[in-house]
Write a structure and sequence with these properties.
- By secondary structure, the protein is α+β, with helices and mostly antiparallel strands.
- It has 23 helices and 10 strands.
- The strands form 2 sheets. It has a 6-stranded mixed sheet, with helices on one face.
- α2 runs antiparallel to α5, α2 runs parallel beside α6 and α7 packs across α19.
């Protein structure tokens, strides 16, 4: 009996710690614990903070699925359904938002772990350790560890798929790993459709390695089969909602058929490359540029030798991963501005290139200055820590600065939930947040375009204010919420402007207005009607009350004649 227990203990110990074989692994193990503790601090710091638009979109759908709420939300099938599906399970089990936030902490820590093992197999443990040290305090990863969004989980799944690809295809450690690559990569796409942008990196690597023989590799065909089988439910749902799924993907993401949009996006393809100084911080950026010459120099000099050199193929994969992620994200990104979180999966390789410059410096210390190798490595570690401190400082300052952003919207949603019944309807342009916090069906004021967005075959409402009034008489919403400091509104509902240093907000539909001095932050005038009668309705100011503090949120309760 005791022998059997000891055997089991031995197996568990081997499973969890069997990979620790040298000092690099030991140092990394300590680093991983510290990285997790840092993320755990972020978790407790942000566990109650308001969710932003996209996060609320995922959460409202997860809550609807998990708790069986009969509400209308803005979920659309272009988003992968895996994240809200897992979220629904968390709500079903009573773990809810807190459980989802902790899952992101685990995925964020997982990025560090997988990056170490992947880079160790691709290059060496020294580069892997230095990379993960820098990666562990990346401000992008740390900040978005505290946000409920899909970027961290998707990056984890993408890097995990690359790890299995390397074990199964490159190192030939077993076809099961190759099949796991197909499975995990599909799960990444189910989490975030944009993960498909990294498929060319794998495809090009395979064809450089095998050329046309790749078509005869049955294990690759099995991998592709697993990949498409996992994605099949998504494409079925997609086709049911939008019609032909491929045509919609091409038109929505790539703007095929819209020459104007294609031309505009083509001008923006390099926007993520130009944002590198902010993504990495200036000190790391300097190291990155040095690293380009040291790490990728021989790749560009020996492009004709890539097929014959495993090291060059490894470096080519790194280059392709960054290139396709940045270039295609620049094109596909719907906004002219940069969302740094979109390139989370590329950060390990960006930092890999950056820290390679430090290995170059270490070699100089050893070969030219004849310093002891251990002493040189310690110096390199100190230099790296100094380089990455700005990342950590930026992350902590941003987490602190943004922890209460949209708190007013959250409180408004909770207030309307407490003062309404299931089945009541709310109108607000802060659509997903109010849906999530109020647990009530929430609609925007631009109801016609919203109906089109939801994919309705027949639009029930007219455009503009006329459609809004039609909606009022049809759905009879209980609350009308205006968040003047947050989302954009049609002018017939809310007009914002500035005149001589005075901000003003006019709400024509409610016959109300206010203005305040930008310098003193003091109200200069206020005319919030407590009660407005129009079109067979009575609108009563519900929030703020007569003595309430103004925070940019106005809520009117509607009574119908």
């Amino acid at each position: 009996m005791e022998e059997e227990i000891e055997k089991r203990k031995s197996k568990l110990n081997k499973f969890f710690f069997g990979w620790i074989k040298d000092n690099y692994d030991k140092i990394f193990f300590v680093l991983l614990i510290l990285a997790f503790l840092l993320r755990l601090w972020i978790f407790f710091k942000t566990m109650n903070q308001p969710v932003w638009w996209d996060g609320a979109d995922y959460l409202s759908t997860a809550k609807r699925w998990g708790l069986g709420l009969n509400i209308q939300d803005i979920w659309y099938y272009r988003r992968g359904f895996l994240f809200p599906l897992i979220g629904a399970l968390f709500f079903k089990l009573g773990l809810g938002e807190i459980g989802i936030r902790f899952l992101i902490v685990v995925c964020s820590t997982g990025i560090i772990a997988v990056s170490y093992f992947l880079i160790s197999k691709m290059f060496n443990k020294k580069l892997a350790l230095l990379t993960t040290l820098a990666l562990s305090v990346s401000w992008i990863i740390l900040f978005f560890t505290g946000r409920i969004l899909t970027d961290i989980p998707t990056a984890f799944l993408l890097l995990l798929s690359a790890f299995f690809f390397w074990k199964g295809y490159v190192l030939k450690e077993g076809n099961k790993f190759l099949y796991l690559f197909g499975l995990i990569f599909a799960l990444a796409v189910l989490t975030r459709m944009q993960a498909l942008m990294l498929a060319p990196a794998f495809i090009i690597y395979i064809f450089i390695n095998e050329k046309m023989k790749a078509f005869k590799n049955k294990h690759l065909w099995i991998t592709c089969g697993i990949f498409f089988l996992i994605l099949l439910p998504h494409f079925v749902l997609y086709a049911m909602h939008y019609g032909n799924p491929l045509l919609d993907i091409l038109s929505y993401y790539l703007k095929i058929g819209d020459s104007g949009a294609t031309a505009q996006r083509s001008l923006e393809i390099f926007k993520y490359f130009t944002d590198l100084p902010y993504m990495l911080s200036t000190p790391v950026l300097v190291a990155f540029f040095i690293g380009i010459f040291y790490f990728l120099g021989d790749l560009f000099l020996g492009l004709d030798k890539v097929a014959k050199s495993q090291e060059l193929k490894n470096k080519l994969f790194v280059f392709l991963w960054i290139f396709f992620l940045f270039l295609l994200m620049g094109y596909v990104g719907a906004h002219s501005y940069v969302e740094q979180r979109y390139i989370t999966a590329g950060l390990p390789f960006l930092f890999l290139i950056a820290v390679s410059s430090l290995v170059f410096i270490e070699n100089l210390f050893v070969k030219h200055f004849h310093l002891n190798e251990k002493v040189s490595l310690v110096i390199v570690f100190i230099i790296l820590i100094l380089l990455i401190v700005p990342n950590l400082l930026l992350a902590t300052s941003m987490i602190e600065a943004k922890k209460n952003s949209y708190i007013e919207v959250k409180e408004a949603g909770e207030l309307m939930k407490a003062n309404s019944n299931p089945g009541d309807v709310i109108m607000s342009t802060s659509l997903p947040q109010i849906t999530y916090y109020s647990e009530r069906s929430t609609y925007p004021y631009d109801v016609m375009n919203y109906s089109l967005h939801q994919g309705e075959k027949e639009v029930k409402y007219s455009d503009g204010e006329k459609g809004f009034k039609e909606f009022l008489l049809n759905k009879k919403p209980k609350f009308l919420m205006v968040s003047s400091a947050f989302e954009e509104y049609p002018e017939w509902m809310l007009i914002k402007g500035n005149q001589n240093g005075i901000n003003y907000v006019i709400m024509p539909f409610f016959n109300s207005s206010l203005s305040y001095n930008l310098e003193t932050k003091q109200l200069t005038s206020i005319d919030l009607k407590q009660e407005v009668k129009k079109d067979g309705m009575t609108l009563k100011l519900f929030y703020p009350g007569q003595n309430g503090n103004l925070n940019g949120i106005f809520i009117y309760k509607v009574e119908y004649d």
